[in-house]
Amino acid sequence: MSRLADLIAQKPEITTVAVTDGQFGDTGKGKIVDELASGWAQFVVRANGGANAGHTIWVMGRKVVLHLIPAGILHPDVVNIIGTGVAFDPRAFSAELKALAEFGVPSTPLVSHCAKLVLPQHILMDRLREAGADGTLGTTGRGIGPCYTDHVGRCGLTVNDLSNPDELARKLRANLAEKMPFLREQDPEKIKAILGQEELGSGELFTPKPDSCFLDVDAIIAQYRQFENQITVANTDEIVRTARDEGARILLEGAQGLMLDLKHGRYPYVTCSDCTVDGLARGAGLSGEDVDLPLTIFKAPYMTCVGMGSFPTEIEDEVLAEEIRKRGNEYGATTGRPRRVGWFDLPLARYAHHCCKRRKPVVSHAIFTKLDVLTGFESIKICFEYEYEGPNYNVAGRWIRTGERLQTAIPDEFVLSQCQPIYKYFPGWKTSFSSAKTRKGLPWRLEEIIDVIAHESGFMPLAASVGPERDQTAILNELCI
Ligand code: IMP
Known about the structure:
10-stranded mixed beta sheet, 481 residues, 20% strand, binds inosinic acid, single chain, 5-stranded mixed beta sheet, alpha/beta
């Protein structure tokens, strides 16, 4: 049993835990989920997002990268589930299963019959839009936005459609017809080039016929049907609810982070799913009240972001940013893009606390990751507040004035883009602590930084990841529930 699993197991009244991210994603949720699946969780449910996520786990020097499959998959005694809230891409799923089998992992997760089906036209549209002239969001190009848009627009498909060939064909044709106005305007050469990419079947979906927008529906059906026997479809909502009623230990795995959440993030530079605790619960078939322990993960004392949109504490000194990027291996696990690097942002963490705070437990528990990356730095900067430098601007009836100080981030892209971080400096630490098991093993200067972050943000630090390997996690406090 991992140390973290052991800590949670000491409170048997905790049966449902949700792992979310308080920043822009990539905080190391996969590692935490893997550790909790190592002796505590009986079910791990991925509840939001799709193959846009990249969860990296290191096991005895070997690296596993998961995109769609829950990070409990490395534990044969755990039931892994891809829930109803997920945008499910059969091709990405099949590729991931293959990679896992090569790693020696034969298990396969159950997939919700209600998970949203990512179609080739979603990926095509995502990539065409990103390459378009009217500005990009910096998406991962995995078709996530168009897939969820279809779901909300009531013209999407679900995993269940894969088992019903006639319905699959009918819905697929209707869905494609709905995309015609957009696709008809696009350059056929660009469509051909995108469909020629390996992830989309190396050109097998392309047809030179303009009246079907260069997408061959029969080829899509054939391609998707070929994945059908790899997918174990189930009514996972019911399975999860029954497990909860029977007192099983359930772990909800989040993808992306609060600042990328569709409703509460820095819109429009967000993903299209619900990244909050309540979103995860619903995406798994539960309700927010079922979650006994939300764990919010933060990278510290630096942070990262990929894609476009404001990042107030972004480090402008490219030499320094590159140094941190290299040390922390901050390259997208899904796209390989270099991540943008910044200092820890307390106004954002306070906003996260505001969003994550619940009546039960009253204490919000945080886990800090990547703490080892800045060992040897002379000094560390932490953003305590922002100075708003833009013109007077009205948010929800309140005027934000030029020169005003903001202690808590306002998730408004215009405001964030005009905020200058106000930093405090902290001396760095020199000694390595990669085998720390408790707070005592951490350099005292780092402890001081964690305490400042905790005190200022309102989160109680539960644990700290001190290296990439499984169980390189120090326990900082007892659970407070
Ligand atoms: P999409 O989710 O591919 O539509 O991308 C929307 C935004 O979310 C972009 O800024 C992406 O870079 C970002 N994003 C999506 N998934 C992740 C992730 O797993 N980690 C970090 N950023 C992500």
